[in-house]
Amino acid sequence: MNKNLQELFAVAQKEERLGIGLMSGTSLDGLDIALCSFSGSGLQTQFRLINFITTPYKEAFKKEVQQVFAQKQVSLEKVTLLNAYIGSFHAELILQALAEWRINPAEVDFIASHGQTIYHAPKRLHQHQNYGNATLQIGDADHIAVKTGILTISDFRQKHIAAGGEGAPLALYGDVLLGSKRGENRILLNIGGIANLTYLPADADYTNVMCTDIGPGNTLIDAACRAYFDKPFDEDSAIAYSGTVNETLLDALLHHPFFNESLPKTTGPELFNLNFVADAQQATRTLNLTKADLVATLSTFTGRSIANFIRANFNEPDIKLFTSGGGARNPFVVEYIKKALPNVTIANTSELGIDPDAKEAILFALLGNEALCGEPIAIGNNPKVLMGKFSFPE
Ligand SMILES: Nc1ncnc2c1ncn2[C@@H]1O[C@H](COP(=O)(O)OP(=O)(O)OP(=O)(O)O)[C@@H](O)[C@H]1O
Ligand SMILES: CC(=O)N[C@H]1[C@@H]2OC[C@@H](O2)[C@@H](O)[C@@H]1O[C@H](C)C(=O)O
Question: Which EC class, in a word (predicted)?
């Protein structure tokens, strides 16, 4: 048998596996690297987070990726170059993290890599008659496998689409394991570039789990900070607190048809970007808003669209909500949600023993473990598939 396949069998049959989950999200803030140990699979998985780091991206790298990010027309040459470059760059960051943690790469059984989403195109968004749902993550995993010497599993979203999904959110596969508790209706709310949530019902029946994107998380706030304040994000909401919310603009933003579309649904900065905001400003004659007022309005937009969604879909007093993602550290947004949902118990996922910043990287590590030794499970109305492709070091 091919040596790669022999090793794959051996890893899949191990009692305990060491795996790395990688997430590089729509915020383009850095690469999240979570080193975890696993035993078992599916809903019986035992896992432990051993180490976690977010390696921030340098501005020059962010600018390169932004050239091809969430835009209809880009340089195909740049996409091709970045596909190889990001794979190799992520491998370098993994090796650095392992060196810092004094872990020999040979001890790690697998890497599960999300890649960098550069375009997310569910049919609801692109609306081309003859095409279905599509999404593109780059940072080819062969480069990661060869450079680190570690078996790498990647490109998880394509199978979800091939089997009828939108390619996202994939969080539910891990959220069920990390967050479900019989007797409690729980919501795991991740506020990344885009906000999404997983509803975990108290009967612990995973066929009733629901996971969907809600709308913008940090993406518009970050974009405004980059464009008007030369800052990557609104640290501790300093700008939002200095501005005044414009209710007319806010109302127009909240009237986008996406908010009334059926669930589950996905979106991205392809829709929620500064052009969308400028169109709403034009329509409401609010183009002369100060930039601080704009950031305050966009921050409220994130908070209110999340609160509206929860109010419209759940019985508030019955819900325990756990936040994660970088947006859980945006005080303006979190305070807004707490005020708007006074009957919901709100905490962050550290109360569940999960580092809120590490959660998504852990989820991908879990998906990697499933790809190696799981069985397809039908969670909610999501495709019953195992996701991910295998790249071998040799
Ligand atoms: N102290 C803070 N104050 C305000 N905002 C913060 C703070 N810390 C982090 N953030 C926000 O969190 C963002 C990073 O979030 P995160 O890493 O969860 O995004 P992501 O993983 O790229 O997103 P996605 O889940 O959509 O792919 C930053 O860009 C910023 O908007
Ligand atoms: C296409 C894509 O990369 N989508 C991301 C993005 O970031 C948040 C939200 O939009 C979510 O749908 C998804 O990521 C998480 C990890 C998911 O699939 O669950």
Answer: transferase
Is 155 touching ligand 2 by the criterion CB < 6 Å? no
CB 44 within 8 A of CB 206: no
Whose structure tokens read 């095409």? 131
CATH fit for domain 3-168, picks 3.40.50.2020, 1.10.10.10, 3.30.420.40, 3.30.499.10? 3.30.420.40
Residue 165 Cβ < 6 Å to ligand 2: no
Specify the CATH number of the domain 171-352.
3.30.420.40
Let me know how long the chain is. 394
pLDDT digits (tens, 9 = 90+) for 134-174: 999 999 999 999 999 999 999 999 999 999 999 999 999 99
- Which ligand sits closest to the CA of 118? 2
For residue 222 and ligand 1, the question of a CB distance below 6 A is answered with yes
ipTM of the assembly? 0.97
Nearest CA to ligand 1 atom 15: 326
DSSP symbols for 303-341: HHHHHHHHHHHS-GGGEEEEEESGGGG-HHHHHHHHHH-
Placement of tokens 């999300």 in the chain: 114
Q: Is 26 assigned a ligand-binding role in the annotation?
A: yes
324 annotated to a ligand binding site: no
